[in-house]
Amino acid sequence: MWKYLDDDTYNKFLLSFNLLKTKDIKRYKKTLYYLSNNIDGNYIEYEIPKNSGGFRIIYEPSRLLKMVQRNILHNILEEKQISKYATAYKKEVCLKDNTLPHVNAKIILKLDIKNFFDNITFSMVYNRCFREEIYTKSIGILLTKLCTYNNKLPQGAPTSSYISNIVMREFDEIIGKYCSDKNIKYTRYSDDLTFSGDFYINEVISLVKKELKKNAFKLNYDKIHVIKRNKRQIVTGLVINEKINICKEYKRKIRQEMYYIKKYGVDNHLNKLNIYNKTKYLSNLLGRINYVIQVTNNKEFIIYRDMLVWKIKNI
User: Fold this and answer.
1) How far apart are CA 143 and CA 32, in angstroms?
2) E strands of the chain, at which residues?
3) Which of 27, 32, 117, 219 shows a CA-CA span of 20 to 30 A to 230?
4) How far apart are the C-alpha atoms of 291 and 298, rounded to whole Å?
């Protein structure tokens, strides 16, 4: 449909996405193509600690690239449909929505997609989000380049989370249809897949493995967990045997960190941990505290939150 698109129509189409504040088409195109051709120079890499141990690499885009990505997210991507079984990175949906269907289940099966974001490639993003049937090929490639880094989806870009849900939509619908027919509850929170009910575990694992392979993903065999009702059932960090609550260990670790910060000060505490980026550390800790508040509305953690917000503002 784009074979005979003239330059003027092309320019108006590109401008219609409102990716930059300027309406000067020459400046608009020059900025976007500069960013897309200099992606390597518009990211900073850093590590944050995982709750399970080790570190996760975060790719933070430059201020200009991040602004463009946010506009791609709000003006283009959020108009695209994602599956009802995807519970992460959706407006007005929180972590509770991922766990609520599984409360007080007879059996819970937890699966994990191996290297999830790293295995969402340039071609997958192009074909699922910006394919030529909807955009011109050049615009589709431009948008894909603005949303990827080193041929993969970068954790840290505003667009990555929603793109991952678009990429997984077909998978979610196939798995969701199977589960609905078998009276199994299914939700997916990013790379975490949760199934609950009374079902044949190996049958579900075989289906997930097959469908992941179709989408160039692999099952993480080190993170297959089956939890029966007589054990503590934890789904995406929440205990859900009878009602939704946060693990005691998770809250205890935050209390311990806040104790050291109050007793020794942020700088001394971070020196002992050999952490040098104060803002990143405090922002990560604040995110974990907000997570507790979101689930439990705990007054103690509201005090922690207010304290950290003040400290971050005064760095």
Assistant:
1) 9
2) 43-49, 55-61, 107-112, 185-189, 192-197, 225-228, 234-235, 238-239, 245-246
3) 219
4) 10
